[in-house]
Amino acid sequence: MKYFATALTLAALATAAPAPVPIGGVGVRPNDTAPVYHTMSDFDFQSLNLGLNQEWIELDLFNYGVSRFSEEEFAAAGLGPDDISLINFMANQEVGHAELLTNILSAYGRTPAKQCTYRYDFETVRDFVNFCQRLTRWGESGVYGFLPHLDSRPSAQLLLQSITTEARQQMIFRQFSGAHPMPVYFETGISQSMSWSLLSQYIVTCPAENPKIDWQIFPALNVVNDANLLVDGYLANITHNRTSLTAPGRTVQFSWEAPGKTTSYNGTYNTTVGGNVTDLVPKYAAWISQLNTTYTELNVSSTNNFSATTLQPGGTVFNVTQDDGIVNGTMFVALTTENPYVTPYNLSLLNDVIVAWGLYQAD
Ligand SMILES: *[C@@H]1O[C@H](CO)[C@@H](O)[C@H](O)[C@H]1NC(C)=O
Ligand SMILES: *[C@@H]1O[C@H](CO)[C@@H](O)[C@H](O)[C@H]1NC(C)=O
Ligand SMILES: *[C@@H]1O[C@H](CO)[C@@H](O)[C@H](O)[C@H]1NC(C)=O
Ligand SMILES: *[C@@H]1O[C@H](CO)[C@@H](O)[C@H](O)[C@H]1NC(C)=O
Ligand SMILES: *[C@@H]1O[C@H](CO)[C@@H](O)[C@H](O)[C@H]1NC(C)=O
Ligand SMILES: *[C@@H]1O[C@H](CO)[C@@H](O)[C@H](O)[C@H]1NC(C)=O
Ligand SMILES: *[C@@H]1O[C@H](CO)[C@@H](O)[C@H](O)[C@H]1NC(C)=O
Ligand SMILES: *[C@@H]1O[C@H](CO)[C@@H](O)[C@H](O)[C@H]1NC(C)=O
Ligand SMILES: *[C@@H]1O[C@H](CO)[C@@H](O)[C@H](O)[C@H]1NC(C)=O
Ligand SMILES: *[C@@H]1O[C@H](CO)[C@@H](O)[C@H](O)[C@H]1NC(C)=O
Ligand SMILES: *[C@@H]1O[C@H](CO)[C@@H](O)[C@H](O)[C@H]1NC(C)=O
Ligand SMILES: *[C@@H]1O[C@H](CO)[C@@H](O)[C@H](O)[C@H]1NC(C)=O
């Protein structure tokens, strides 16, 4: 009986006083402003509209890959009917992501991007899945880079819930490529200009009403001796222990484009270097992966200002375990004129000193 009385008293107390919310936090109390899932600034609109352009190409790409190749061609890459269905499902996920972003962006009578036409340069299933793991890499990282900077936290919540799905797509395409699924401890974030620079080159035409994208497009950086993720004998699988594709101390050769090139859809855009760049000859390679931006000195060719070498850096994120190399996975590399110290939350400040921008296939 005594036990019952205590339980009843506790129950009454529980109804009378809601669990306290520790001091701080935004939008977590009943009397806080109700969330509105709209963009709140040009920064928000341009960031989310860039995200929408990324979702549209993924939708096109996944559908195109499935329609372009036969079941036999997929089988030769180690991919069966269930795997093809998974790619189909991923395309449908993109329909949902595009719908979500369109809804957020449509507020205040604004016009979000519609789907465009694209160009791809793969000819085999293996090259298709490899391209998908590269494209989803910058799609995923491009959103991580701006999510915590958005003015609209409610919109960030929704975008977060779609980008975590994209992260799974990226990992699955690495598995489909016969690679280690996630050879890093942390997935890096990059700026909007950094992801737009990689995406823009694959868009051919867009409807006239598509909003102009205000982010920069950096001149393309080519890793002349980039490793190929596709290794003979390693077909699609959950994971593979493979010999690392690259290692610290490797001589890496770069070539890059001069700024001022017309690019992307309808010849609407030009490539430009960072706002602080005065001398077009870069001094550093910036290696961007995990939590780190690491610089190495460039050896620019004496006969060609658009060609250079450097040595791949070593080092780990934390010196505790030794398999968290700061250069690993599908990652990013910039050529820069300065070597400012930047951390994940202020990486976009690097934009100002970039001369060329690209991907590096470390593993
Ligand atoms: C909201 O409610 C909390 C208690 O839950 C109270 O401390 C606070 O003053 C209220 N804020 C406003 C703006 O009414
Ligand atoms: C791009 O070109 C296509 C095909 O000519 C045209 O339909 C479309 O309106 C153009 N879009 C822009 C943004 O100029
Ligand atoms: C996947 O890996 C398992 C275990 O390592 C192996 O037995 C299997 O043959 C592999 N499958 C393919 C398609 O390579
Ligand atoms: C795979 O690699 C890990 C780490 O390099 C090693 O500990 C493990 O023994 C390897 N497993 C096999 C099956 O070779
Ligand atoms: C691209 O840059 C060139 C040279 O500065 C300029 O003539 C051209 O108008 C620019 N094109 C666009 C689309 O901005
Ligand atoms: C770019 O130039 C501005 C203005 O001079 C300066 O404040 C900023 O620190 C520079 N950015 C970098 C990354 O060097
Ligand atoms: C720079 O490159 C040149 C030409 O490849 C080479 O001779 C020279 O040793 C390199 N210098 C350094 C510091 O790596
Ligand atoms: C490389 O660029 C520098 C600085 O802009 C210039 O002085 C030099 O003539 C260029 N060299 C070559 C080979 O283009
Ligand atoms: C990588 O970033 C982490 C987190 O900021 C830092 O603690 C570590 O020292 C960095 N590692 C290297 C090799 O720069
Ligand atoms: C990393 O830790 C090892 C000991 O575990 C130490 O010998 C080494 O100097 C450390 N390296 C750095 C860069 O701190
Ligand atoms: C990349 O990650 C893989 C998987 O953990 C590891 O085996 C390899 O040593 C790493 N490579 C580098 C260059 O750190
Ligand atoms: C970026 O943030 C770090 C602190 O996390 C700060 O030390 C650094 O100066 C900042 N970089 C720039 C270019 O402002």
Automatic annotation (TrEMBL):
Highest taxon above the source species: Eukaryota
Keywords, in A-Z order: Signal
InterPro entries the UniProt entry points to: Rds1
Signal peptide: 1-16
Annotated Pfam families: Ferritin_2
Protein name: Rds1 protein
